[in-house]
C-alpha cells in the first residue's frame, strides 16, 4: 500500500498559510473552508475525483449526529463497551491533502503539521 491516494483537482497550497486549496469542496453541498472527509477505500477510478464530504453531509450519509462533533473533528463512537472520540465518520476518513494537492495522506503518514492544518479548520461548514 502506498502512503498516499491520488487527489484530482486540488491546487498546491501550504499548511502554514492556514488556507484550503482550491478544489477542497464538499461534493454534496459544495461548501468549503471547513474540514472534509474522504472514503476509507477510494472507490473512484483513475482520473475521477475522490469524493469529499463535509461533516454535515458525511454524518447524514452514515446516520450520525453531526451536532456531537468537536472542534478537532472528533465524534464519540461506541467501540465495544467504551465510548471513544475518533476523527472518522463511519468509513469517511479525514481528507488531508499533501501540499502539492496531488494526493491525500493515509492516516499512518500524516505529519503533525498536516494534522494541525486539518484540525484548525472549522469542523462544520459555515
Ligand atoms: Zn457537505
| H/E element order | EEHEEEEH
Attached small molecules? zinc ion
User: Which band does the percent of strand residues land in?
Assistant: 15-25%
Specify the overall morphology: globular
Number of helix segments?
Answer: 2
Which bin fits the share of residues in helices?
10-25%
Structural class: alpha+beta
Side-by-side strand order of the widest sheet = 1-6
Question: Structurally, how many domains make up the residues?
Answer: 1
Tally the beta strands: 6
CA-atom Rg in angstroms: 14 Å
Characterize the main sheet: 2 strands, antiparallel
- Pick out the low-confidence regions: none
Whole-number mean pLDDT: 90
Distance between the termini: 35 Å
Walkthrough of the structure:
This protein is α+β, with helices and mostly antiparallel strands. The protein has one domain (4-120). It has helices at 55-62, 112-120; strands spanning 4-6, 37-39, 75-79, 82-86, 92-94, 103-105. The protein has a two-stranded antiparallel ribbon with strand order 1-6. A two-stranded antiparallel ribbon has the order 2-5. Residues 26, 28-29, 31, 53-54, 56-57 line the site of zinc ion (ZN).
What is this structure's SSE topology?
Blueprint: E1 4-6, E2 37-39, H1 55-62, E3 75-79, E4 82-86, E5 92-94, E6 103-105, H2 112-120
Antiparallel strand pairs: 1-6, 2-5, 3-4
This protein binds zinc ion.
Give short descriptive properties of this protein.
126 residues; alpha+beta; two-stranded antiparallel ribbon; two-stranded antiparallel sheet; 2 helices; 17% strand; binds zinc ion
Amino acid at each position: 500500500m502506498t502512503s498516499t491516494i491520488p487527489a484530482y483537482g486540488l491546487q498546491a497550497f501550504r499548511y502554514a498559510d492556514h488556507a484550503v486549496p482550491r478544489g477542497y469542496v464538499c461534493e454534496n453541498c459544495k461548501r468549503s473552508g471547513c474540514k472534509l472527509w474522504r472514503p476509507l477505500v477510494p472507490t473512484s477510478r483513475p482520473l475521477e475525483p475522490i469524493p469529499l464530504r463535509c461533516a454535515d453531509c458525511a454524518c447524514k450519509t452514515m446516520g450520525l449526529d453531526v451536532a456531537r462533533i468537536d472542534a478537532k473533528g472528533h465524534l464519540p463512537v461506541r467501540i465495544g463497551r467504551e465510548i471513544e472520540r475518533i476523527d472518522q465518520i463511519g468509513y469517511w476518513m479525514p481528507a488531508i491533502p499533501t501540499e502539492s494537492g496531488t494526493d491525500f495522506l493515509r492516516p499512518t503518514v500524516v505529519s503533525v503539521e498536516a494534522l494541525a492544518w486539518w484540525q484548525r479548520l472549522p469542523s462544520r461548514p459555515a
